[in-house]
């Protein structure tokens, strides 16, 4: 089942429209990195993308009363970012026209943003998923995979037994990945099998 | 951008995310599948998004978006006074970011497995059934019995028919009204995609491969020779010892005479070549056309074709692998491999482009879905397959 997300929170939208600073913080924090990913897909430039994402959120705040729901706000943000990105590309094209006549032009008219938007959305959902993990699981996973610590080190640091560490690790991974079904297990075996094909 | 339906985007993103984390219900999986199948573009989008390296790069961009300082900056521009809540949030976000980055890397493996599993976008996905224990037995009076696919073999006895687990096969009207005599001839026949074991009245065991048939008498009592006829296909014999009564397998073109031994006869060849492989004991091969004979030793294979008999030493394991429930390819051409698959999976094989001259080696259970066998063959990197319905296209 898909959990109900941020964008169904109508109370938050109401507060946003009424000018709540806290609501702005939340909306900004939610959409900004998402829009950065989207912008980077078009521009291949993270810094400019970050500025464009910020601009679009500032614009949205200024006309916040116009959005009856989050999907419309999001449509506005994506449109804003897309247009700004193409303006940037246009500017870059003018700049480089003197440097190279062979400069590739982006086919702005044919551009279909669907792929880049879904990409950004999926990335943002993966990050959101992390927040759904129990605190202890998250810590153990972080210490194991980010900090590269051994179960012994983690157990000392968190003051729990090594087996607790291991079970948190397993539980965290299972929560994230779901359980491997028989089908996937078979796939693993098949992937390993070509090793016996000695030519 | 007007064309963009943000609700669809949100829903599809939810589904893809749920798919990555294996959180989808069956209905949601179907919904995603319908969307993927709706257009080439959609499929491409799906495949590019579940691509591990693209995802983890996207994750890096997300993680390094400098959202906290950008928010402070934006609030300055909008005339807010900065508040202290951000710091707390920033620590939390930073943690999430690190963990998420690690998880995207961990997930990478998951994504790889999912994408290559017979599920989404797998070009080898199919509804082709694996071969099974199935055969028909035609009695002397012409009545045909379908042998249960829940059993693996049938035991022939002059008085009654039983499965190899002892269950009696009901043939009431046959046995009661017309008791079997010594000359009762019966035929057991397996279809393409079938195999069956039969125990003859003298205790000789015969395994029939797919698309094979064997004619035999229900009792050898009173006969000098125990004679059976392999009408086509492939069979493995474990002949029970009886020096007084030689066992003879008759084929189109050859006779195999044995006393007590294990051997395999392959009659699949399109050009009429009969291959007999001896595992243990000794057998005498007679070419009926030329009356030439040869004695086979264990590990030898005879080829009877036209008027000739040719003997070669072979590795017997691959020859009898089918009887043990395996495919075992040994230095075989793609055509030889595909012929075996065609008989077991009842598929039509089509070759596209020049046929590979590669020789294939490898072993896999015949109980596997054909996709797994094809995937193994693709693993050699010398060949690719396309599966449409029952047709398998071999692409070099």
Automatic annotation (TrEMBL), chain B:
Keywords noted in UniProt: Membrane, Transmembrane, Transmembrane helix
Signal peptide: none
Domain of life: Bacteria
Keyword Transmembrane helix: yes
Annotated ranges, domain FecR protein: 188-284
Keyword Ribonucleoprotein attached: no
Pfam families per record: FecR, FecR_C
Gene3D superfamilies noted in UniProt: 2.60.120.1440, 3.55.50.30
InterPro entries in the cross-refs: FecR, FecR_C, Ferrdict_sens_TM
Membrane-spanning ranges: 93-115
Protein FecR C-terminal domain span: 326-394
Protein name: DUF4974 domain-containing protein
């Amino acid at each position: 089942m898909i959990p109900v997300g941020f964008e169904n929170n109508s109370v938050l939208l109401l507060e946003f429209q009424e000018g709540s600073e806290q609501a702005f913080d939340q909306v900004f924090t939610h959409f900004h990195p998402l829009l950065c990913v989207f912008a980077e897909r078009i521009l291949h430039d993270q810094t400019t993308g970050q500025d464009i994402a910020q601009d679009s959120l500032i614009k949205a705040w200024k006309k916040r009363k116009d959005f009856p729901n989050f999907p419309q706000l999001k449509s506005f943000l994506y449109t804003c970012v897309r247009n700004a990105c193409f303006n940037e590309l246009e500017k870059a094209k003018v700049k480089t026209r003197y440097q190279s006549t062979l400069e590739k032009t982006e086919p702005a008219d044919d551009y279909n943003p669907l792929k880049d938007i879904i990409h950004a959305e999926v990335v943002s959902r993966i990050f959101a998923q992390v927040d759904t993990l129990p605190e202890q699981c998250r810590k153990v996973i972080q210490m194991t995979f980010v900090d590269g610590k051994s179960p012994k080190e983690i157990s000392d640091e968190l003051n729990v037994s090594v087996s607790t560490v291991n079970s948190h690790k397993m539980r965290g991974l299972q929560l994230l990945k779901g359980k491997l079904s028989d089908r996937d297990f078979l796939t693993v075996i098949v992937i390993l099998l070509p090793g016996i094909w000695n030519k | 951008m007007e064309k963009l339906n943000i609700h669809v985007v949100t829903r599809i993103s939810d589904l893809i995310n749920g798919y990555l984390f294996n959180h989808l219900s069956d209905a949601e999986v179907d919904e995603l599948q319908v969307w993927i199948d709706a257009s080439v573009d959609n499929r491409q989008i799906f495949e590019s998004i579940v691509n591990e390296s693209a995802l983890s790069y996207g994750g890096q961009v997300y993680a390094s978006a400098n959202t906290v300082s950008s928010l402070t900056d934006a609030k300055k521009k909008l005339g807010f006074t900065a508040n202290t809540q951000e710091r707390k949030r920033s620590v939390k976000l930073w943690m999430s970011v690190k963990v998420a980055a690690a998880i995207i890397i961990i997930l990478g493996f998951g994504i790889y497995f999912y994408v290559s599993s017979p599920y989404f976008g797998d070009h080898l996905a199919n509804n082709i059934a694996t071969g099974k224990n199935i055969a028909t037995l035609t009695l002397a009076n012409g009545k045909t019995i379908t042998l249960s696919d829940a059993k693996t073999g049938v035991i022939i006895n002059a008085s009654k028919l039983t499965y190899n687990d002892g269950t009696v096969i009901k043939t009431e009207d046959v046995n009661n009204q017309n008791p079997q005599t010594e000359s009762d001839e019966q035929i057991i026949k397996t279809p393409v995609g079938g195999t069956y074991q039969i125990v003859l009245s003298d205790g000789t065991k015969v395994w029939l491969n797919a698309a094979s048939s064997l004619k035999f008498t229900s009792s050898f009592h009173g006969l000098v020779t125990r004679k059976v006829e392999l009408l086509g296909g492939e069979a493995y014999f474990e002949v029970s010892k009886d020096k007084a009564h030689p066992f003879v397998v008759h084929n189109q073109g050859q006779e195999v005479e044995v006393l007590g031994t294990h051997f395999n006869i392959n009659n699949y060849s399109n050009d009429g070549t009969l291959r007999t492989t001896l595992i243990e004991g000794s057998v005498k091969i007679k070419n009926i056309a030329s009356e030439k004979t040869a004695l086979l030793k264990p590990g030898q294979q005879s080829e009877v074709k036209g008027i000739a008999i040719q003997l070669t030493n072979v590795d017997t394991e691959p020859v009898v692998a089918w009887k043990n429930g395996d495919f075992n390819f040994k230095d075989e051409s793609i055509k030889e491999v595909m012929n075996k698959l065609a008989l077991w999976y009842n598929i039509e094989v089509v070759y596209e482009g020049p046929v590979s001259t590669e020789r294939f080696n490898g072993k896999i259970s015949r109980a596997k879905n054909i996709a797994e066998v094809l995937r193994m063959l693709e693993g050699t990197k010398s060949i690719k397959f396309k599966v449409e319905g029952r047709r398998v296209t071999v692409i070099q």
